[in-house]
Amino acid sequence: MTRYESSASAMLSVLRRHLRKDGWTILRLSREIGVGEATVKRWLAGKGLTIDRLEAMARLCGLVLGDLAREAEDAPGELAHELTLAQEKALSSNIFLSFLFMTILNGVQPTETAADFAVPPRTMEAALARLERLALIDRLRSGRVRPLVDRTMVFRKLPLRSLFEQHMKRVFFELDYSAPETTYISEVVKLSRAGEAQLAELMEQFRGQVQALADRDAQGSALGREWIGLLGVMRQLDLSPIREAQWEFG
């Protein structure tokens, strides 16, 4: 592989990561650009991809070629798309360690987290060293920290799902949903199995859009920012309370 081919491959890898983060599916890209899905797949695989086409897709993420080049130069290469069981077990052993990793994954530097939560320098250094040993982050010479895992990953294994069950679920279930400061959405629909799968994909796309919003907000907001929690859940409804209801109206 020539130096140019290597650089182009790294830039394409960065572009693919941004497209996933911003919720651009193959179907959505094909409709936006006006070509077939098979063509989009070939381009994203690096086949027949010209500079003009690369630039056109980069613009969909609000980027120019220079952005891709700079990020590719600093990028660690292809990011992992899921955690190993050992990594999840290590993260689940300490709530601060898992929280710190999530903040880094979402673009917040440890210095900002330390300032927000008054974390002592020795504690932060120990946590970062632990994440580095777990091959979850990379510390750059500039002092910044970057994740080695794609932020679009989903926690699928037991340890971190159990951690959420223990520490985070109550945060959402103890909310006063009648309070005006609580923003939530709720919907009831009837779907086939195929429809359920499409809904799950929509939820992942929305997560990518939320991450993109956070990135833009961090770069352009002159106001102070607060930590916001968001939970999206889908499940089959337990309809027994409705079936057992008295069908009488006064």
Rounded mean pLDDT is: 84
Span between termini: 78 Å
Strand order in the largest sheet? 1-2
Strand content: under 5%
Oligomer: single chain
Shape verdict: globular
Taken in chain order, the helices and strands follow as HHHHHHHHHEEHHH
Got a strand count? 2
Short description:
With 250 residues, the protein is mainly α. The chain is built from twelve helices and two strands.
Overview of this protein structure:
- This protein has helices at about 5-20, 25-35, 35-45, 50-60, 65-75, 85-90, 95-105, 110-115, 120-135, 160-175, 195-220, 240-245, and strands at about 135-140, 145.
- With about 250 residues, it is mostly helical.
- The chain has a two-stranded antiparallel ribbon.
- Strand 1 and strand 2 form a beta hairpin.
- Helix 1 (about 5-20) runs parallel beside helix 4 and helix 7 (about 95-105) crosses helix 9.
- The longest helix has 28 residues, at about 195-220.
- The radius of gyration is 21 Å and the shape is globular.
